[in-house]
Design brief:
The protein is mainly beta and 123 residues long. It has no helices and 11 strands. A hairpin with a 4-residue loop joins strand 7 and strand 8.
């Protein structure tokens, strides 16, 4: 089994900063893309940022220049540094990872989600 556990959410004021962390554990052979998504009340889940195994990043237009995604492959961790947050960034943030596992001599890929962490930006 594979688990993704997020931490670091909470209440932050406009203009402040917050860092989200996600650690993967379990039956992991390798980790491909890792990313952060978010879902605000009444809205669909949307991509915030992605980072490939080679470190190539991709951001939603709404967070470019304010959020930074990074990863530590040795620690199976992905981070999201949120600078200058705005009230519209308020949402539940979910970690996602494409993970390759090995079981009974076979390899398989699957996408996993964390349980989500609430981020609330107050003005």
């Amino acid at each position: 089994q594979v688990q993704l556990v997020e931490s670091g959410g909470g209440l932050v004021q406009v203009g402040g900063s917050l860092r989200l962390s996600c650690v993967a554990s379990g039956r992991i052979f390798s980790i491909n893309d890792m990313g952060w998504y978010r879902q605000a009340p009444g809205k669909q889940r949307e991509l915030v940022a992605l980072i490939s195994v080679g470190g190539i990043t991709n951001y939603a237009d709404s967070v470019k220049g304010r959020f930074t995604i990074s990863r530590d492959s040795a620690k199976k961790t992905v981070l999201l540094q949120m600078n200058d947050p705005k009230p519209e960034d308020t949402a539940v943030y979910y970690c996602n990872a494409d993970i390759r596992s090995r079981q009974w001599g076979s390899y398989y890929n699957a996408a996993y989600w964390g349980q989500g962490t609430q981020v609330t930006v107050s003005s």
